[in-house]
Amino acid sequence: MSMLRIFSLSLLLLAASRLLGLVRDVVVATQFGLTGHADAALVVLSFPDLAVSLLWGAAIPAVMVPRMAGRDAAHIAAEGARWSRLAALLFILAGIVVWWGRLPIVHLLAPGLNAPEAALAAQTLGWSALVALPAGAVAMVGNAMLQAQGRLQWQYTGQVVFNLGLIGGLIVAAQTGQFAWVAGGVVIAALARLLLMRRASRAALPAAAPGRAWPDAASLHALGLALAASGLTVLYTLAARALMSDAGPGQLGVFQYAQRVGELPLHTVFAVASALALARLSAAESQGDSARAQLETRQWLRAMLWLSALIALAGMVAAPGVIRLLFGWGRMTAEAQQQVAEAMRWILLLLPLQAAQLVLATRLNSHRRIADQVLGYGAGLAALALAGALLPVTSWRGLAAYGAAWGTATAVLWWRLARHQADAQWRNAGVLLAALLVLAAAGAALRLMPLPWALDLALAAVLFAAGVWALLRFDPLGRLVRDRYTSRRLRRAA
Questions:
Q1: Rounded Cα distance, 364 and 367, in Å
Q2: What is the Cα–Cα distance from 9 to 1, expressed in whole angstroms?
Q3: Which one in 78, 95, 136, 387 has a CA-CA gap of 20 to 30 Å to 64?
Q4: Predicted pLDDT at 479
């Protein structure tokens, strides 16, 4: 299967998964509104995957893919078996720890919950973590194996299955009035995804040959650094959620819904591009072709900056209409919808920063320079903590601190890559700065001169179409995609 076809199919499946994630939040919002019960449900639903992402998810591809890309099937099978054993052992222990500390964890994630709602969330969270944590960790190993093989479509199929299980649990809980079914949905979803990932990741591989039972010392050292890097970025979300929860009932939901919608492009288009690029850049480095890797990184960074700015601008214009379509029914009031729309615009303002850091981090991973990422993300967390401590307790404190984290992290990662490689190309920094200024001005104008929500959607569609046309016409990477698509159509016609 060609790279373009894999990208298209993977993007379609990932978009379906993210849309199902939105459906999940819509079900929570319409059944519970902006209440403490909604916050409790969001904690139970999001914690297992957040914890696996914090402790494992992003670190595993960063370590495994550069060591497996371009290697033979037997090597991939052996590495997968070693990492699966380690994942199962570590996260069975993690599940037990979560079970014993479930109530303090709930208080940490959502300090604004009252006692009955916190107890309800803790009970369901403890049971789900015992199964969902080890199942999710082993599934992530399968994801890394698929990424190294260039078979990303199965990885995103697993996410679709996972979200369907969560939605099923929510529906049953809503219909029966039994909150425990929220945890039941988490468990069923995690097990279904695990079974799919194990079958898909090993379908094209031989049985693992006898050998070492565990990863080697160098890989474990790299894993430790990667865990620190990925964990720090997940802490951005957890810390921002806690700050929002402290601002009053329902504010955690405002951040959750705004982030879910606003970061949808980041976790679809840019995530798929990053997954494909990591294997490609790692293979180029292993073959000694650093010049090609540098050129592709510069082109990729410039294209991602333009695309992220375009998506962010269209999304900021469309925010009120999108939120009304998604949440404008059930118990979500017009005032609540406006709060989510304004928060969504702030999240979208950060999209070029997040897209840039994704490119920079992927390139650093291909260099196996994970320590630079720990430095960058640690600086971002320090900026978030400082902003959270200095700003007054308002609904905007969490959003401002979240923005400070991503801005600081991106600046440090850019500096570290540019210091050793020509990949970053400082001219692209001017593109990033210009994009942020334009988006900030657009956000201020939209706040001062609100438009009818239907006109918002129409204007956003026009802006996005014009931007995509310009990207395909004037950007080198965009022209390459356009030319390949055109040539394929001509071959089919012939």
A1: 5
A2: 10
A3: 95
A4: 62
The C-alpha atoms of residue 296 and residue 437 are separated, in whole angstroms, by 26
CB-based burial of residue 73 (10 Å sphere; 0-12 exposed, 13-18 middle, 19+ buried)?
exposed
3-state helix vs strand vs coil in the chain, percent to 5: 85, 0, 15
Question: Quick one: angle between helices 73-100 and 36-52, nearest 10?
Answer: 140
Instruction: Look up residue 459 and give its amino acid.
Output: L
The Cα 41–Cα 30 span in angstroms is 12
- The Cα–Cα gap between 145 and 73 comes to 10
Q: What is the pTM of this model?
A: 0.69
Of 67, 72, 132, residue with least CA distance to 99: 132
Query: Tens of pLDDT along 42-101?
Result: 777 777 777 777 667 677 887 888 777 667 778 788 888 888 888 899 889 988 988 888
- Long-range CB contacts for residues 310-313, cutoff 8 Å, separation at least 24: 310/463, 310/464, 310/467, 310/468, 310/471, 311/265, 311/269, 311/348, 311/351, 311/464, 312/348, 312/349, 312/351, 312/352, 312/435, 312/439, 313/438, 313/439, 313/442, 313/463, 313/467
Structure tokens at 65: 């893919």
Concatenating the DSSP letter of every residue in 351-420 gives: HHHHHHHHHHHHHHHHTT-HHHHHHHHHHHHHHHHHHHHHS-SSTTHHHHHHHHHHHHHHHHHHHHHHHH
Which residue type sits at 191? Answer: L
Q: What is the DSSP letter of 267?
A: I
How far apart (Å, rounded) are the C-alpha atoms in residues 254 and 345? 12
Instruction: Give me 297's structure tokens.
Output: 């990184």
Q: What is the pLDDT at residue 402?
A: 92
4's CB contacts (< 8 A; 6+ apart) are: 481, 484, 485, 488
Q: Cβ(368)–Cβ(422) under 8 Å?
A: no
- Using DSSP's 3-state secondary structure scheme, residue 253 falls into helix
Give pLDDT < 50 ranges for the chain: none
Structure tokens at 325: 């379509």
Question: What's the pLDDT score for residue 107?
Answer: 78
Task: Please give the pLDDT value at position 25.
Answer: 76
User: Are 406 and 380 spatial neighbours (Cβ–Cβ below 8 Å)?
Assistant: yes
